[in-house]
């Protein structure tokens, strides 16, 4: 089991799990990836632990068959939409007599940066250093080995509601998986779909799920802003079902198979036979289907555009990258996005064999991020349980084995053309 790194992404409609391995060339390879449907999560928050746990079990069982090994531990992603970023500074004196900065000094300054006042219902999940400052000299990425008297850090403190995070942990534990650590979702995704040049110059990462859309703004090499829209791909499916008077399950199938928006004209119209209620077959117009989808996608992009424009980074942004299964899989979505956002739009696809889908970006990103941390320690065969030097946002919040024992006894709407008035 130790040769594999397992990453789990718990989404609102799907659980995705990826198994990766570091090869002899110190490169990470994805050895297996799979997903299963889930209805126990709403907008990144677990609302049904039993349902979520069963979905995780099903997903992990499928992954075990792929990699032919028993999976008992994993890293999970922490959604950015349920988190909050706070900027803070930490300051310490260099402890060694020769004034050389060592790892312990870095740990102390990061700990100092976490001394802030937080609400009772929230907790610090981790800290992301933006820059280190030595005796007034800033923009230092790695101060270890340098000399100085005073070490400072400008850091982003990640906060999340304790109950939300604990329920995610409970769901994974109940599925028989021990959580070895957490990876902050925006960090995971950006590592596999964004280029370093984009992060430096300025880019928007849009993670569109089934019930929420997380918008991450990067600039100057750092995550600058997080915002969330309370709608996602499910609202498109709902529009199709309501307008065409068909079951939601059939509407989802139509969306996945026939969605093709952004065309200048729909000349090649044809009828699609689908099963309606009581086994009755109805014919649906291909052009009408895509007009319904396009109308809602335009509205969603308008809301995304509004969120981006109210930030101070709009003029610095070079483009928009889309991931997730809510919108990124719709054919033609890049063209609609470019027209509305006024920025280049592309779909973010992990460059790994067998995982080249925006749906798998977060799960692959978790595996990639843990793999990179292993490389930093220059020990490809390290014991993953010894994670003292991993980035802070990977730390396990508490001993989940003990926690599991304790728990066993406690069981936008805006206008979108005029479709709805046409159909009713």
From TrEMBL:
SUPFAM superfamilies: Actin-like ATPase domain (SSF53067). Cell division protein that is involved in the assembly of the Z ring. May serve as a membrane anchor for the Z ring. The keyword Cytoplasm does not apply. Pfam families: FtsA (PF14450), SHS2_FTSA (PF02491). Residues 5-193 form the SHS2 domain. It is a peripheral membrane protein. InterPro entries: ATPase_NBD (IPR043129), Cell_div_FtsA (IPR020823), FtsA/MreB (IPR050696), SHS2_FtsA (IPR003494). Belongs to the FtsA/MreB family. It comes from the Bacteria. It is found in: Cell membrane. The keyword Cell cycle applies. The gene is ftsA_1. SMART domains: FtsA (SM00842). Self-interacts. Interacts with FtsZ. GO terms for cellular component: cell division site; cytoplasmic side of plasma membrane. GO terms for biological process: FtsZ-dependent cytokinesis. Keywords: Cell cycle, Cell division, Cell membrane, Membrane. This is Cell division protein FtsA.
């Amino acid at each position: 089991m130790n040769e594999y790194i397992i990453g789990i992404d718990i989404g609102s409609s799907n659980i995705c799990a990826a198994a990766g391995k570091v090869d002899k060339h110190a490169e990470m390879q994805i050895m297996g990836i799979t997903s299963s449907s889930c209805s126990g999560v709403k907008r990144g928050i677990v609302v049904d632990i039993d349902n979520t746990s069963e979905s995780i079990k099903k997903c992990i069982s499928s992954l075990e068959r792929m990699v032919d090994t028993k999976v008992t531990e994993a890293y999970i992603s922490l959604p950015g939409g349920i988190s909050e970023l706070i900027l803070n500074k930490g300051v310490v004196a260099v402890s060694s007599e020769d004034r050389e900065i060592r790892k312990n000094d870095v740990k102390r300054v990061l700990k100092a940066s976490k001394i802030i006042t937080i609400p009772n219902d929230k907790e610090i999940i981790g800290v992301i250093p933006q820059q280190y400052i030595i005796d007034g000299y800033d923009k230092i990425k790695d101060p270890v080995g340098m000399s100085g008297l005073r070490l400072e850090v400008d850091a982003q403190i990640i906060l999340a509601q304790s109950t939300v995070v604990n329920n995610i942990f409970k769901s994974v534990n109940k599925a028989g998986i021990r959580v070895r650590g957490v990876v902050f979702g925006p960090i995971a995704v950006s590592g596999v779909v964004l280029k370093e040049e984009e992060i430096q110059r300025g880019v928007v990462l849009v993670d569109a799920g089934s019930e929420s859309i997380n918008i991450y703004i990067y600039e100057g090499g750092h995550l600058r802003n997080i915002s969330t829209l309370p709608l996602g791909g499910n609202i498109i499916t709902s529009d199709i079902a309501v307008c065409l008077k068909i079951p939601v399950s059939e509407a989802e199938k139509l969306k996945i198979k026939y969605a093709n928006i952004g065309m200048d004209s729909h000349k090649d119209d044809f009828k699609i036979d689908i099963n309606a209620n009581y086994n009755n077959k109805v014919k649906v117009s291909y052009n009408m289907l895509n007009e319904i989808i396009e109308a809602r996608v335009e509205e969603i992009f308008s809301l995304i555009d509004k969120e981006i424009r109210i930030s101070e980074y709009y003029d610095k942004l070079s483009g928009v990258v889309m991931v997730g299964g809510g919108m990124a899989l719709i054919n033609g979505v890049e063209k609609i996005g470019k027209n509305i956002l006024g920025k280049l739009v592309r779909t973010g696809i992990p460059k790994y064999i067998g995982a080249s889908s925006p749906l798998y970006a977060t799960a692959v990103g978790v595996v990639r991020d843990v793999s990179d941390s292993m490389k930093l320690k220059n020990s490809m065969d390290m014991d993953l349980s010894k994670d003292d030097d991993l980035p802070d946002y990977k730390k396990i919040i508490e001993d989940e084995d003990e926690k599991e024992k304790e728990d066993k006894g406690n069981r936008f709407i805006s206008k979108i053309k005029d479709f709805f008035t046409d159909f009713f």
